[in-house]
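Tip: read the tokens left to right.
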């Protein structure tokens, strides 16, 4: 008995934690920003529960009434350390290339700011493989 394969025409990917490992850059940027506003450097274990939330929401919880300034400082610091701390996960490039070679459209969907997302894609060497970036 022959089985019918499911076919699909596009795959959407998240960026942070899926295609590129940004964990250390995120943690370092959070510690830097919080230390600036409070004089205290939190432990990484204290920050991990906030990861995954949109940046403004993180600072609404961590630095109430300083969200805008904290976001600006975080983004500047994060970009300055991206090359040191960001890397692609093993197998990402070859997987994306195989999908693309099979005619699959590739999209990236992230809550990360566009410029920072593009920098991460460039570091991983996968910026040109995507058909759409949201």
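Filled-in amino acids:
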């Amino acid at each position: 008995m022959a089985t019918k394969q499911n076919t699909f025409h596009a795959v959407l990917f998240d960026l942070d934690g899926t295609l590129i490992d940004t964990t250390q850059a995120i943690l370092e940027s959070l510690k830097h920003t919080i230390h600036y506003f409070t004089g205290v450097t939190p432990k990484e274990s204290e920050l991990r529960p906030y990861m995954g939330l949109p940046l403004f929401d993180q600072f609404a919880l961590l630095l109430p009434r300083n969200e805008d300034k904290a976001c600006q400082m975080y983004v500047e610091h994060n970009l300055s350390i991206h090359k040191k701390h960001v890397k692609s996960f093993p197998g990402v490039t070859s997987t994306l290339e195989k999908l693309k070679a099979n005619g699959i459209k590739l999209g990236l969907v992230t809550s990360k700011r566009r410029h920072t997302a593009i920098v991460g894609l460039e570091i991983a060497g996968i910026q040109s493989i995507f058909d759409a970036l949201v």
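The two ends are 41 Å apart (CA to CA). Residues 6 and 82 are 38 Å apart (CA to CA).
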